[in-house]
């Protein structure tokens, strides 16, 4: 098993460099066009020349942070504060606006229900019976 380890490491480096080259934007490729780098990685991958050349000279590396700090230091300094929903004024305001919308919708539904109940009462009472001012014929005069 141990005798296969060098071959597996070479294969892993070869695959990593190939995928890294394919995923790198054209603007970050240095020296040669991206297609040439892919060919170099594929042709010289078995002897590690292609993948190592890509990792060393082919890809433009970005600096870690603009102020010289490491990523962990940057994240420590720019950490977002967690606010519980009870203390978040934006969340509480959204609850109030949703509550107002729900109340308005409920009032509309109640008015519609009252109207439908009134229509059913009129239909059940029959055409000859007067239930209220709506069923009273207009005065002629």
Automatic annotation (TrEMBL):
<keyword id="KW-1133">Transmembrane helix</keyword>
<dbReference type="GO" id="GO:0005886">
    <property type="term" value="C:plasma membrane"/>
</dbReference>
<protein>
    <recommendedName>
        <fullName>Cardiolipin synthase N-terminal domain-containing protein</fullName>
    </recommendedName>
</protein>
<feature type="domain" description="Cardiolipin synthase N-terminal">
    <location>
        <begin position="12"/>
        <end position="58"/>
    </location>
</feature>
<feature type="region of interest" description="Disordered">
    <location>
        <begin position="62"/>
        <end position="87"/>
    </location>
</feature>
<feature type="compositionally biased region" description="Basic and acidic residues">
    <location>
        <begin position="117"/>
        <end position="126"/>
    </location>
</feature>
<keyword id="KW-1003">Cell membrane</keyword>
<feature type="region of interest" description="Disordered">
    <location>
        <begin position="117"/>
        <end position="141"/>
    </location>
</feature>
<dbReference type="InterPro" id="IPR027379">
    <property type="entry name" value="CLS_N"/>
</dbReference>
<feature type="transmembrane region" description="Helical">
    <location>
        <begin position="35"/>
        <end position="57"/>
    </location>
</feature>
<keyword id="KW-0812">Transmembrane</keyword>
<keyword id="KW-0472">Membrane</keyword>
<dbReference type="Pfam" id="PF13396">
    <property type="entry name" value="PLDc_N"/>
</dbReference>
